[in-house]
Amino acid sequence: MEPIKQFIENHIPQMNNPEKVYELFKGLGYKTLDTSYRGIDAWGLRDRDKESVREIFTIANYEKRFQIYLVALKSFSSSIVRELPKYFERETQYPFFVLTPDFQHYTFVLIEKIREDAGVWKRKIIKLNLDRENAYHTDKWTLWQSAIAENVTDPNKIYGILKEAFKVRRVTDKFFAEYKTHFDLLVDELKKNNKGIQEFNEPNYIYAFAQRILGRLIFLYFLQKKGWLAGDKKFISNWFQKINKEKGNFYNDVLEPLFFKTLNEKRSDDSSPFGKIPFLNGGLFEKDYDFLLFLPNSVFEKILNFLNWYNFTISEELPLEVEVAVNPEMLGKIFESMLPEYERGKKGAFYTPRPIVHYMCRESIKGYLASSTNVPRYKILHLVEQTETKELTIPEVKELYHALDNIKVLDPAVGSGAFLVGMMQELIRLKTALSEKIGKRVFPAEFKRQIIKNNLYGIDIESEAIEIAKLRLWLSLVVDENIENVEPLPNLDYKLVVGNSLVESLRRRKIISKDDLELFEDVKIQLLHELRDELLDEMNPNKKNKIRQRIEEIENQLVRERLETEWQNKLKDANDLIEKYQFGRIPMPTPDKKRHEKFIKEANQIGNLLSEINKSGLKPFFLPLIHFAEVIKPKHGFDIVIANPPYVRTQKMSDLGYREDLDLHYNFVDDMYVHFTFRAFELAKPKGIVAFITSDTYLTLSMKERMRELLQNNRIHRLILTPKAFKATVNTAIFIV
Known about the structure:
Blueprint: H1 2-11, H2 18-27, H3 47-50, E1 53-62, E2 66-73, H4 78-88, E3 94-100, E4 105-117, E5 120-131, H5 137-145, H6 155-165, H7 168-193, H8 203-226, H9 235-245, H10 250-262, H11 297-308, E6 321-323, H12 329-338, H13 341-347, H14 354-372, H15 377-386, H16 394-405, E7 409-411, H17 418-437, H18 444-454, E8 456-460, H19 463-480, E9 496-498, E10 505-506, E11 509-510, H20 522-537, H21 541-584, H22 590-616, H23 624-627, H24 629-635, E12 638-643, H25 659-666, H26 672-683, E13 684-695, H27 705-713, E14 718-722, E15 732-736
Parallel strand pairs: 2-3, 5-6, 7-8, 7-12, 8-9, 12-13
Antiparallel strand pairs: 1-2, 3-4, 4-5, 10-11, 13-15, 14-15
Helix pairs in contact: 1-5, 5-6, 7-8, 7-11, 7-12, 8-19, 9-11, 12-19, 14-15, 14-17, 16-17, 17-18, 18-19, 20-21, 21-22
């Protein structure tokens, strides 16, 4: 394969006309036709699509079952990529396309047919975008993997070779392996060059610190691809070479000021020492350490060489349209892949495949719209499944739009944010279709911003997971923004939260239940809501800290009020017992003496807890019911609770520091997914939607009877077995209630 690799390396920069494209495939071993096989009219293109096409060439034809087409475009658009294959499938079983508007930028398109049902097929588009003057290593690698031997003429075999070459998984697996190598290198260099930093002696701290550096750096690569770093598509490498040549330090002289000054501080006209770069805010670039840090240029030379091999795309994958490149979804897969095997088993973290996310989000939205609107169910199904609005009346459109505007979705085990991103994509798709039906202008970036601010919530016990979930939501905003009118990213501190979503306890004491929220003053809940809304868009670091402190004060106050009420009730119960027997002048029986002692003991425990909270002045706890009180109190819970909860068995629950809290909250200890299921019904509103993918052991094991009863009592809408859906060692099932 070496001669082919060298051929691709030399040929791609010269590929500036149709003949050179033909030569590419000839060099890859394909039997090419001459350029006279061309024409547009034979394909029956609609006028709208024909306007986008300059010429169509047939490069290769294998028994009319596999054909390669070169489509010279007048202008490139995503819609033409989706529409063109429809015309060619009548002529050939396996069409393969090369689209270009200028013989500089190319999109190679492989069509894969996905069987949905008997006789029902859907078209999946797999794309490789290539700039001939700036081709990435992985682009060239994919092309040389597409080469065929001279004697291969079977259309099925040729298609199979291309299908294998264009597998996104090949790129992702390669990326993960190299990422892990460079992550370990960074951790070693942090330790070796910063021995005076005590925090680096803590493995969890240095692991998270290295992840943040690489996470921020990868975010820069996505911004660079967008052209937001001074318009320079090689900004990071160019600055590294400049600083290295000047004997400066890349981290201290470029990355630190870029992260914590340029991207984190508002500037007039977006001017900076690095050129015009937008202010992004959002918390991603807030400095989270106060020590002097040293990292040699040599470590970044290796990291940048690795990252420069890959094509970064800011587009999120869709179920039926993917790009052979590093996309934002990979951030989630990185989080899962970076957990060592023993840690993954202990934490039970497994990345949810996109088709499963897609299915669960759609089914949840169907259930929500059916229960919260008066629109006939068949119309809702047509809208959600096919984006069909023809049957909807204008009042129905407005009712559905209002329902989607007010939906509240929680993932209590959010991981890297796959379900929240999936839900956002579905909400945008549906709101766009409804808007177009009533002639309302559509602004994707504005839709995304509103959805992230108003509709999506997540909790995870792992801080690294929350960081990546935030990154994914921020990147989804960057996709649709233009540099001319880019808005700062929202602060997601109170939308995506580090915490334990399973319990409402503190120091082994249950603090609050959903019913207790009714005791809280509406004015305080409203104030919390207003402060969190204010924090979303606040740009000044000092003001952000003041708002955070005020929110914590109010949450503290709510907890104190709840504890003081319980403390007073326990003392009253104890005094009532004493008065009962003092009034009758009879001795207190032994059972009531024990009850009195219990009341006094509990009152003292509550009093000590109150003193601890009052003395610390800080919030050493996370209580989901209080944290999301502005959602849970008025709605009595979330509209949809959706998750892929951790896979931790009962036997391993003793390793957790909160086993006693689980026993206190649920009166049992079971597999982690069972607790998450019970918790989901607590956090969802009455008759809300719960959509989970979990181990399927509750279907057969006698000890899972409580889980079966819970689901049976709440009427299961969908139960689908999904054996070995991902890398967990158990079979799985989806249930939607």
